[in-house]
Design a protein that fits this description.
single chain, alpha/beta, UDP-galactose 4-epimerase, domain 1, 2 domains, two-stranded parallel sheet, 12 helices, globular, binds NADP nicotinamide-adenine-dinucleotide phosphate
């Protein structure tokens, strides 16, 4: 069976590809798709079929997906504007003869109206109506965002501004999301299933600010904000309001419309989802945020920040 992975040059897709090879999948059975297949040279050298495909270009996707059966469809980064891109990908997969799409979605209770989630629920509905087999990996928020963006920014400024109130979320590491995706791609029986990939504990941003302070040794004042004040903070950092492909500003790879809407959704309790799906899929316990941040403590040191 030929397996397709989209977004294959990024950390998510490339690690799943390598994980499948490590599990004994022949590289020749992988079709790896990227906007820039030159970034996939290391997989081409191992015998993988690397192809150009852009979710903004339907025809490129039909050609890129041809001959593949099961596909890991990694959602793009244009939060709030992904519906046309994902429509192209699902329609092209169908035209190319793909039979099963495993889709990286996002957690959220029914009725959750976060900007990030609306694109994902649209895509889930599209897949349900497509006639293809589908599997949804509803990943929780990545703990990596605390290590790479929010944590270092707070260590550098000495304060953590948040509009999340008393809301909680069971953050998960991207490493664990990748392990779950690899397990689903490597094994059978996942058709029609929705998995909530979460960490093992519900945690607040205040808890994380305290943890980052403890690990870095830097006092961090936690400041509760309104949505408008949070926008003003991101504006002052130069973070764009709407999504810009592949743009990272001070470690933040997401636009402020996304992040402000995201924090409001935590405040409303709509991301307060916890599940043992990760353990059931992988046989391992998901990593606690505190263990993850301790493992990368040096990234939170005042000199690194
Ligand atoms: N759960 C969370 O907290 C969280 C955090 C960040 C992001 N996300 C979301 O989860 C998904 C994966 O994010 P990630 O950071 O883990 O993954 P990632 O490895 O950065 O993958 C994203 C991939 O999207 C592909 N892509 C972007 N625009 C594309 C286009 N026009 N056509 C085709 N492919 C395109 C890129 O592939 P190429 O460059 O190879 O074309 C890139 O590798 C994204 O939807 C992202 O918004 C979730």
């Amino acid at each position: 069976m030929k397996t397709i992975i989209t977004g294959a040059s990024g950390p998510f897709g490339s690690t799943v590809a390598q994980g499948l090879i490590d599990r004994g999948v022949s590289a020749a059975d992988l079709i790896l798709v990227s906007r820039d297949p030159r970034k996939l040279a290391k997989f081409a050298e191992q015998g993988a079929d690397v192809r150009a495909g852009d979710f903004d270009d339907y025809e490129s996707l039909v050609a890129a997906f041809s001959g593949g059966e099961k596909m890991l469809m990694i959602s793009t980064n244009r939060v709030g504007q992904r519906e046309p891109q994902h429509t192209n990908a699902v329609n092209a997969a169908k035209a190319a003869g793909v039979s099963h799409i495993v889709y990286t979605s996002f957690i959220g209770k029914d009725g959750c109206n976060s900007l990030a989630v609306s694109d994902h629920r649209f895509t889930e509905d599209l897949l349900k109506k497509s006639g293809l087999d589908w599997t949804f990996l509803r990943n929780s928020q990545y703990a990596e965002a605390m290590r790479d963006a929010a944590g270092p920014a707070a260590v550098a400024s000495g304060h953590w501004m948040s509009s999340t109130g008393d809301g909680k979320i069971a953050m998960v590491t991207r490493e664990n999301c990748i392990e779950a995706a690899t397990a689903v791609m490597a094994t059978d029986g996942h058709e029609g299933k929705t998995y909530n990939i979460t960490g093992p504990e519900r945690i607040s941003f205040r808890d994380i600010a305290n943890l980052v302070s403890e690990l870095s040794g830097k006092p961090i004042e936690y400041i509760e904000t309104t949505d408008e004040e949070l926008y003003a903070m991101f504006d002052s950092m130069g973070v764009p309001r709407s999504a810009q492909d592949d743009l990272v500003v001070n470690g933040f790879g997401w636009c402020s419309d996304d992040m402000v809407s995201f924090e409001a959704t935590i405040r409303a309790g709509d991301f307060d989802v916890i599940s043992d799906d990760f353990e059931n899929l992988t046989g391992k316990k998901p990593e606690r945020v505190s263990d993850f941040l301790s493992r990368y403590r040096e990234k939170l040191s005042p000199t690194a920040a």
